[in-house]
Structures are given as C-alpha cells and as structure tokens.
C-alpha cells in the first residue's frame, strides 16, 4: 500500500536575495516547499533561483519588489495574484530589512526616517494584512518576523530600532488576535549575530569569518513553518531556541 505524499506547502519569503532570505529559501525548498521569493533586485533573486534549480528542488517564483515603495494597492495586487495561482498560502517569512545610516536622531533626515519605518514596519504590515485571507485558507499556516532586539532603544539605531521594536509589538498583537482559531501561528525570531552583507556594512571592522552563517537560523525557520513546527509554541524565539533545535536535528 503506497502512502499519499504530503501536499506541497506554498511559502513566501521577503528579502530572498539577502544572506538570511536566500538561506531560508534553500532550507524551505529542500523540504519540498513551493516558494514565492520577493526581493528588491532581480539579480540576487536569479542567483538563489539558480541554486535551487541546481539542487533539483521545485523551481521558485520570483517577484522583484522594493518594499520601501510598497503601498496598499500593490500589496493587495500581490495577494490577489497569490490567491489566483496557489489558492492558499502556508507561510510568510519577513527577512527584508535595512538599517540605513546609523546616526543620532537629531541628525536623521526625515526622508530616511520615513523610508526605514516603511520598509521595516509598514511594508510587513501591509503585506501580512493583504495575505491573511490566503493564509487563513490553510489548515496550518505561519507568519514569522525576523526581529533584532539589540537595536531596540539603542543610541544611533534610529528609525531601524524603532521599527523593529514596533514589529515585535505588531507580531504579538497579531498572534493574540489569531491565537483562538489555532490555524495561524505568528511569531518573531531574534537570531544571534551572523554573517551578512548588512552586518559587514554596519560593523566594517568586524571579521566576518568569526561569525556563523545564516544556515542554522534558516533551518530553524524552515522547521517552524512545517506542520511539525507547531510543537514550537513560543511567540518570540531567540538564539537558545535556534541552537537547541539545531542540536536536536
């Protein structure tokens, strides 16, 4: 008697051209997911597409999108396209982020404040809100926001730190609102420092070779997005959660 294969899960990853986003995409593709990859630039998206193709996984769908410019109409149009092509969405991972220039709030130009708040907080809100109907059609779906608590209330981190603090609060509010139904999980993950182009730009004197890669974080996220990941019931995951899960796999 042959077993029925598990239905394919459709996942959307923002910032998919970056270090963490691309690692998450690869980890999810390795588990058989069908991926919708959002990123600001086409070339990094094509690079992760090629890596997924070379591994023999299901080819992803690429969606170049500058979240710093995303408005409500664009978010709704994307959600409509997802629903028409896939029906249900099983996971949404917000990896896109930008710190902007680190400087005192007194010196931060208003246009940079608005752009960074939009990219790091408003755009995730608009995209999540627009995709909630597609997520709700799944028997088990998850929304995961990547947090950076080290930036909260920290000097010179400006709009980025404010946005990340707001992102955590938004995730907690969303989790409270959807917890009763049990079909949509919402959480944040706050990893320890890892190698990335963004971190190299912020800390140019740091030796990237001394930092871990994004793969353990990506493996944790990919597992959390599976039905088996429902056993991970925290709403805020930190480095210890990631390390524990990686050691047990």
From TrEMBL:
Keywords, sorted A to Z: Oxidoreductase
Pfam family, one: adh_short
GO molecular function annotation: oxidoreductase activity
InterPro entries registered for this protein in UniProt: Sc_DH/Rdtase_CS, SDR_fam
Domain of life: Bacteria
Keyword Oxidoreductase appears in the UniProt entry: yes
Family the UniProt entry places it in: Belongs to the short-chain dehydrogenases/reductases (SDR) family.
The name this protein goes by in its record: YciK family oxidoreductase
Species, as recorded: Methylogaea oryzae
